Amino acid sequence: GGIRAWWKEASVYQIYPASFYDSDGDGLGDIPGIITKVDYLKNLGVDVVWLSPVYESPQKDMGYDISDYRQIHKPYGTIQDIEDLIEILHHRGIKLIMDLVVNHSSDQHAWFKESRSSKSNPFRDWYIWRPPKYDANGNRHPPNNWASIFGGSAWEYDAVTDEYYLHLFCAEQPDLNWENPKVVSAVHDILRFWLDKGVDGFRMDVINVVSKTPGLPDAPITVESSKYQPAMMHYANGPRLHEHLRGLRAILDQYDAFSVGEMPFVSDPEDILQAVGASRKELNMIFQFDIVEMDSSASNKFTIVPWSLQNLRDIVAKWQTCMATGDGWNALFLENHDQPRSVSRFASDRPEFRIHAAKMLATFLALQSGTLFIYQGQELGMANLPKDWGLEEFKDVETINYMNEVAEISKVKSPAFYDNALEGVRAKARDNSRSPFQWDTTTNAGFSTGNPWMRVNDDYLYCNAQSQIDNSESVLTFWRKLLRLRRQMLDVFVYGDFKFLSVEDENLSVYERSHPFAGRALVLCNFSQHPINWIIPDDVRFLCGHENLALCNYGTAASLESLDPDGKREIRFRPYESMIFFAK
Ligand code: ISL
């Protein structure tokens, strides 16, 4: 695990401000609301809060479109509120990291308003402008064929100056031009502004796309049916990325602050180690997307692809191993505000399985090597949106753009095409994780006394924090125990070696964590709704007894002393059962 560091040992809790807690009844969560819930976070046992964007924003993409990096979106509160939050969290021993969204700004940012106003404006080259292309018939086209990640062309025509600007995401999120040193130093100033206020680090939004291939060449045609092509090869991990990352790191180091970089579109360990290897002095860790992409087709995230435990194990083994050998560091996550709920996605949210399934996934995730990230509601086993909700309940710009495209195509294709796409949306839409946090059984799950900006999941009477807090069998209580266990045995669970055992088992994940002096642990997870009988391999038999059982998601493990028909000792796992054994 390399040298020890506070950020390696941390459990981080992600707050999505719109949906956490509304203190003033306007239907939207807010910073004073977060302040009233600090006890809840303390009780859960997290060390760090990652706050998704709360800056001033027209909210075209839920705050990932920032119009002023030094102001707070009014409905979320004031600068004073965020200063209070930092102080109160610090007082309780919890750190705060902010979301840094600097690949792009909002089109309402003063920089962009200046930039678009004329070709000679001093801010013109703070963004990426290019003249149109014209075909033989004199028709105007974008400067290249890049597709936006949110659909359509990545270029928007602006009549004011008769040029296009680049936007990898929405048209209202123009990409900043990191080739311009003034942009880079403006970003550095933003970092210092928040670090001076006491924040402890940043989650850096799509930080690996800031450097584009010079000349912005066309992408190869990989989607025949589309005018616009996926162009990651021209913006992910571009030529100047590492220089930019080192620049950001130099500032963070002055404050003992840390960074987790979001790095989609890259899964080659070599590329990633260049950004997280300790000696490189770039990022501390990255969010890597192999797991959350394993059940989608490469060309369309809404196309469902079956996955197996073998796929999952391969991915985990790959990253656990390469980070250990390359002196990098993992960020562990199964959920965030861009992903559906893990219990629905990777296990089962059926009432008879849901609680055990959520605890099993928690076990699987929390005891790997890396910094642990928990997304709000994951600790309750919150599930995807109900299947019978109408599309009007979905608020995400990505979902809406996609379903508009689908509706167009369905006119030529068929209603079946539409239904199929809708099924993909129900499974994968980002909306799934954005519904309001379920606090209790009162109106709107206690999230707001007003009209929630997004509908509360129908299951809140059954799944809410209040009914889980004092319940020894709840998912929440289980997470508390897990976080405590991880903290008590940092040498084993954070810094120890990692290895999968029994990889021939189709539905049972078994991994071992070990440390030469601190001990040895076995983490076993039944990923299926069926019982599994597991014959204990000789070399770990000494571990698998009641005296070493640190945690079982059913409370007590039923059958540690069972014998199979040949008289070999076996463990009988119930559906989604998980166990942790530990011995010094
Ligand atoms: O969820 C995705 C699209 O389906 C991802 O590709 C996502 O867009 C990508 O991980 C980048 O996400 C981040 O930047 C986006 C913002 O919409 C996401 O919420 C944010 O996490 C643009 O700022």
What does this structure look like?
By secondary structure, the chain is α/β, with parallel strands linked by helices. It folds into 3 domains: 6-103 and 181-479, Glycosidases (TIM Barrel, Alpha-Beta Barrel), CATH 3.20.20.80; 110-166, Alpha-Beta Complex (Oligo-1,6-glucosidase, domain 2); 496-583, Sandwich (Immunoglobulin-like). Helices cover 28% and strands 18% of the residues. The chain contains 17 helices and 25 strands. It has an 8-stranded parallel β-sheet. Strands 18-19-20-25-22 form a 5-stranded antiparallel β-sheet. Strand 18 (497-501) and strand 19 form a beta hairpin. Helix 6 (181-196) packs parallel to helix 7 (241-253), helix 12 runs parallel beside helix 16 and helix 13 runs antiparallel to helix 14 (415-428). The longest helix has 17 residues, at 309-325. 48% of the residues are buried. Bound molecules: 6-O-alpha-D-glucopyranosyl-D-fructose (ISL). The site of 6-O-alpha-D-glucopyranosyl-D-fructose has 14 residues, from loops. Residues 61, 64, 101, 149, 169, 205-206, 262, 264, 301, 337-338, 398, 430 line the site of 6-O-alpha-D-glucopyranosyl-D-fructose.
